[in-house]
Amino acid sequence: MLGSILRRGISHGYAVYSDITSWHADTWTNVKPGSIYHALNKLESQGMIKSINSEVNVKLGPSRKEYTVTKKGETEFEALLESALVSIDIQQFSAGVAFMDMLPRQKVIALLQQRRTEIEKSISFLRSLPTEERPPKPSMHPELVGIWVGYVENELATTERILAHVQAGKYVFKSEEEE
User: Fold this and answer.
1) Could you point out which of 76, 106, 141, 156 has its C-alpha 20 to 30 Å from the C-alpha of 132?
2) How many CA atoms lie less than 13 Å away from 154 in the CB half-sphere?
C-alpha cells in the first residue's frame, strides 16, 4: 500500500486497488484487494499516510479522499523494504524485489549479499541434519531434508541471479533517474 502511494505521490483508494489488482499483488504478497480501504484507514490512524481532499470532483459529488505518505510512513516503508530484501519468506522477498528500485542500488546490493550469506548458512545447516533410511522421526527423513535443501538452493540461485542483474546495471534505482 505504501509503495503504491509512494510511486504515485498522491493516490486515492481506488488507484491503490487498481495498482494491487493490476500487479496481481495478491499472488505474491498477503495483501488482498478487499482489505484496501481498511488498511488505508489503519495506515492513516498510525500516521503513515495522511489524507487530503482531492481537487477533482467526481460527478459533481463530494471530493474523494486522497492520501500521501508521511515521513513516518516513508521511514516505515524503507524499513519494511530492507527487511523484505533479506527475508527468506518468499512473499516478503517478492514484495522487496517488486519495490527494490525505490532504494539506492548499493543498498540493494548490500541487502541481497546479506540474504545470500544467510541462505548459505541455511544450506549448510540443512546439509548437516542427520538422516536415516528408516527414520525414527519425520525430521530425519532424507526426502524431507532433500526437499528443503533443494528449496533453499533455489532461493540461493534466485538471489545470485537478481544480485548479478542489479550489479550489472539492469534496473534503474532511486536517485539514478536524475543522472
Assistant:
1) 156
2) 7
What are 96's three cell numbers?
Answer: 522487496
SS3 77: helix
Q: How many CB atoms lie under 10 A from the CB of residue 45?
A: 9
d(CA 46, CA 73): 9
pLDDT tens profile 131-155: 999 999 999 999 999 999 999 999 9
Distance CA 126, CA 153 (A): 10
Q: How many separate helices (H) and strands (E) can be counted in the chain? A: 8, 3
What cell does 8 get? 504515485
| Distance from C-alpha of 152 to C-alpha of 43, rounded to nearest angstrom | 34
**SS3 category, 71:** helix
Read off the pLDDT band of 17 (50, 70, 90).
Answer: confident
Q: How far apart are alpha carbons 54 and 49 in whole angstroms?
A: 15
Q: Which amino acid is at 157?
A: A
Confidence class for position 63, pLDDT limits 50, 70, 90: low
pLDDT in tens, 69-111: 999 999 999 999 999 999 999 989 999 999 999 999 999 999 9
Picking from 54, 58, 77, the residue whose alpha carbon sits closest to that of residue 67 is 54
